[in-house]
Amino acid sequence: MSEEPDRHSGALAGMRALVIGGGSGIGLASARLLLTDGSHVTLAGRTLTKLEHAADGLRDSVDGASVGVVACDVLVGDDVRRAVDVADGGAGLDIAVTVPGGGPYSPVLGYGDDGFDDAIRANVRPQFLTIKYAGSAMVRSGGGSIVAISSTVAVFPMPFDAGYAAGKTAVDMLVRIAADELGGAGVRVNAVRPGLTATDTTVGLVGNEAIAARFLEQQPIKRVGRPDDIAHAVRYFAGPESSWVTGQCLTVDGGHTLRRFPDLTDLARRVFGEDDFDAAMRGELPR
């Protein structure tokens, strides 16, 4: 673990951070805040050109930004371990943020047997691999903070997205167990649960005024989330302000989980296919 940061040069001065999924959206916004407060940040993701473009933008927008990139398939253990090694740089890793996840729209009865497994894997495996390899590096260097991106669907039902929801629910429990196991070594593990947030992956929802309105109808705060809304929660968990906080899942959603998930049956029908959707709902299982 790095020495206590010099707050005259930023609360995270001298710290090293890895942001997996840092090329856009929540990951990029989180990286910007970490850089602004003085940390060195390594962006990791599948597409190197995307990461390099993001890094150039950060250097342009944050004075003195120290940022590197590394290509990483988040589902491949050796890639995640290599990304951790690059971010560590022999100086110790202090912060790891992991964003990736997602899943197809499908009725529960419409999933192929392997398709459901794939959805769970896409959401849980990146978080597990990050905790495993970043956590190991942090244990060796004396401590650190891991922040996983979960989702509000971990705490209330999202019909027609069971794989994604089940995966995010598993992430929350993984975070809590890892926090319990690693706390004695000085490693904190927490999660942020975003509500509907405007990113490249949610453009189909946010960009559809009728669907976005259904979400906002169920929120006390009547706006869609911004990546910075989530990034500020990530920054809190990453920094010294939360040094006595671990195993927590913080929901940042405009109050959405106070109410209910909107009815998106029509969207599910379009995405999954009208005929296939009707067949699944009749119990005609996919071949």
Pick out its properties.
287 residues; 13% strand; disordered N terminus; seven-stranded parallel beta sheet; alpha/beta; 10 helices
Helices, strands, pairings?
Elements: E1 16-20, H1 25-36, E2 40-45, H2 48-61, E3 67-71, H3 77-88, E4 95-98, H4 113-141, E5 144-149, H5 162-182, E6 187-194, H6 203-206, H7 209-217, H8 227-238, E7 249-252, H9 265-272, H10 274-281
Parallel strand pairs: 1-2, 1-4, 2-3, 4-5, 5-6, 6-7
How would you sum up this structure, described in words?
The chain has 287 residues and is of the alpha/beta class. It is built from ten helices and seven strands. It has helices at 25-36, 48-61, 77-88, 113-141, 162-182, 203-206, 209-217, 227-238, 265-272, 274-281; strands at 16-20, 40-45, 67-71, 95-98, 144-149, 187-194, 249-252. The chain has a seven-stranded parallel β-sheet with strand order 3-2-1-4-5-6-7, with helices on both faces.
Q: How does the major sheet shape up?
A: 7 strands, parallel
What is the residue-averaged pLDDT? 94
Which percent bin holds the helix content? 40-55%
Which structural class do the helices and strands define?
Answer: alpha/beta
% residues in beta strands? 5-15%
Characterize the overall form.
Answer: globular
> Could you spell the SSE succession in H and E letters?
EHEHEHEHEHEHHHEHH
Rg to the nearest angstrom?
19 Å
Low-confidence stretches: 1-9
Major sheet strand order? 3-2-1-4-5-6-7
Q: What's the total count of β strands?
A: 7
Measured between the Cα atoms of the first and last residue, the distance is 52 Å
How many separate helices? 10
